Amino acid sequence: MTTDYDVIQIGYGPVSKVSALLLDRMGWKVGVFERFGEFYPLPRAVCIDHEVFRMLHANGLGPIADAVTDPTPPYRWFNADWKELLTIDWSGASVSGSDEVMFVHQPSFEALLDAEAKRRANIDLHFETECIGFEQDADKVTVHMRDTKTGKETSCTARYLIGADGANSLVRETLGITRTDLGFEADWLVVDFVLKEGLDATQLGLIECGQYCNPARPTTIVPGGTDDGRVCRRWEFMRLPHESKEEMVEEAKVQELLGDWIKPEQGDLVRHALYTFRSLLADEWRKGRVFLAGDAAHLMPPFMGQGMCAGLRDVWNLSWKLDRVMRGEANDALLDTYMPERRPHVSDVIEASMFLGSIICIPDEAAAAERDETFFSGKAPPPAPFPILTDGMLARDATGAVVAPAGELSPHGTVRLGRRTARFDSFVRPGFVLVTTEDLGPVSPEAQQVLDALAVTRVEVAPRVTARDDQVADTQGMILPWMETQGIAAMLVRPDHFVFGGAKDATALETLIAELGRQAQALGLMPATEETLVSA
Ligand SMILES: Cc1cc2nc3c(=O)[nH]c(=O)nc-3n(C[C@H](O)[C@H](O)[C@H](O)COP(=O)(O)OP(=O)(O)OC[C@H]3O[C@@H](n4cnc5c(N)ncnc54)[C@H](O)[C@@H]3O)c2cc1C
């Protein structure tokens, strides 16, 4: 069966751009259709996290990630009297070896991704082309488009379709997929301002990054990345119950709100827009050959800075699975793990965002005073740890329960091999990786068969000072201490950097590899043995 493309993507937001680049790298032909003449040029996301930063680096997009990220100051939350309620220190080393969070200027990020996509021969970009519908059969999806200038209608085919078409997704609507509302809704005026050359937040006496939880006007004050060397700043002002949406976007209102923080002569107002922050989760993420990703699948309030990150995680999760299935190296069931892996994860992220939102979105003085008291008396719960994978392709015990540390993001850092020092990911080929400490010997021939069938790269990690030339030296100290904390001497890492499972010794490693083999066979990732064929 020949199709025009391997994958068609509707929309050309950040999620679609990264998806196209990932799929292109794996050798697939991608057709992207965007209804506007260019991608959305104004800032929305202002930060990305360490996992996304690592993913970009691991996929040849490191120079882009490096070029658009700025280090993050502590994220500080204050009450109306500027007493600190909580601080989230994002600048510390994350499990990925970089800062937890980095600030970005979304249009600069997207511009570099776009330039890269335009250089790739396998990516066809179609602007001013709106998707108006599609249908699918057993072999392909047929997508219908309309040229937004001429009105001319055309159709294209692909093996798979990804709806990365944002919050009002036509793909989702066409599939009749409903969304669950997790219960958050608030209107915020978002204002972006570029400081005059040479100015920065500290010179202006601004807090660098924080939330001013003043019930008289809950306000977010954060960096907005750097645009062509100029410092961008973001303010977000919550609409109060007595204010109308229309009034919030009037120029005079914007100036009045900004006036408390900055003078017009200190820079340029880039834009202002009123957003309704919501918490919505699609109830299905796949129907046949069609998938949802990014804002099409989930919406969240921005207090964790995770909306775009979640979308980039979606396509990172989906791309390696599509790759294996399209290569004939896995069966369709692998694609069914997309939603069980991604939906609970993003649902937890939305809940965490809503929790932060519940701290700031309080327009009532008495309720705010009560909140302050909870923090000052130490009764406020600490922020929950960042979600991990809880379902899907993860090591399980005999009862089917996921066994820790399965589902954790694997540790990553700078390492040395021989005379080269670089990011760990740059030493291993894409795919499954078995990381072991040095005292674990060779595995049994049966286990080796599984590792060979899945082309698992085995890496022996040793401490920096004692590592031999053929071992990976844990120079940044990110990998071995993490494994020690988990009580493991080996871990199997999936192609998307999540831990499939860990083992405390050589015997447990045999069991873990057998479990990988069992699941890999069920998903068609490796040929079934006679034994499994018989039991099937
Ligand atoms: C104020 C604010 C602050 C935020 N801060 C952060 C942050 O700090 N960190 C973070 O990670 N996220 C943040 N986000 C969220 C982030 O901006 C979004 O999650 C992200 O941009 C969504 O990307 P997307 O590619 O899924 O969708 P979009 O960027 O919305 O792209 C969808 C594209 O699809 C196109 N399209 C739609 N329908 C069709 C059709 N029928 N045919 C063809 N094309 C179509 C649209 O024109 C659009 O270009 C923030 C959002 C807001 C509003």
Describe the structure.
It is a single chain. This protein has helices at 14-25, 50-58, 62-68, 106-119, 170-174, 245-248, 251-259, 307-326, 338-360, 365-376, 445-453, 480-486, 506-522, 530-535; strands at residues 5-10, 30-33, 47-49, 69-70, 75-79, 84-88, 101-104, 123-126, 129-136, 141-147, 153-163, 179-195, 210-213, 219-227, 230-238, 267-282, 286-287, 290-292, 298-299, 414-417, 420-423, 433-437, 457-463, 472-474, 490-493, 499-503. The two termini are 29 Å apart. The chain contains 14 helices and 26 strands. By secondary structure, it is an alpha+beta fold. A hairpin with a 5-residue loop joins β25 (490-493) and β26 (499-503). The protein binds flavin-adenine dinucleotide (FAD). Flavin-adenine dinucleotide is lined by residues 10-16, 33-36, 39-40, 44-47, 130-131, 164-166, 170, 190, 275, 294-295, 302, 305-309, 311. Residues 10-16, 33-36, 39-40, 44-47, 130-131, 164-166, 170, 190, 275, 294-295, 302, 305-309, 311 line the site of flavin-adenine dinucleotide (FAD).
Bound molecules: flavin-adenine dinucleotide
Task: Point out poorly predicted stretches.
Answer: 531-536
CATH superfamily of the domain at 5-70 and 101-180 and 279-333: FAD/NAD(P)-binding domain
**What is the fold-level CATH name, i.e. the topology of the domain at 5-70 and 101-180 and 279-333?**
FAD/NAD(P)-binding domain
Tell me what the CATH architecture of the domain at 5-70 and 101-180 and 279-333 is: 3-Layer(bba) Sandwich
Radius of gyration: 24 Å
Mean pLDDT: 94
Can you give the helix content as a percent range?
A: 25-40%
What's the β-strand tally?
Answer: 26
The CATH class name of the domain at 5-70 and 101-180 and 279-333 reads Alpha Beta
How is the biggest beta sheet arranged?
Answer: 8 strands, mixed
Give the helix/strand class: alpha+beta
Kindly, what is the distance between the CA atoms of the first and last residues, rounded to a whole number of angstroms?
A: 29 Å
Q: Hey, roughly how much beta strand do the residues contain?
A: 25-35%
- Outline type: globular
How many helices? The count is 14
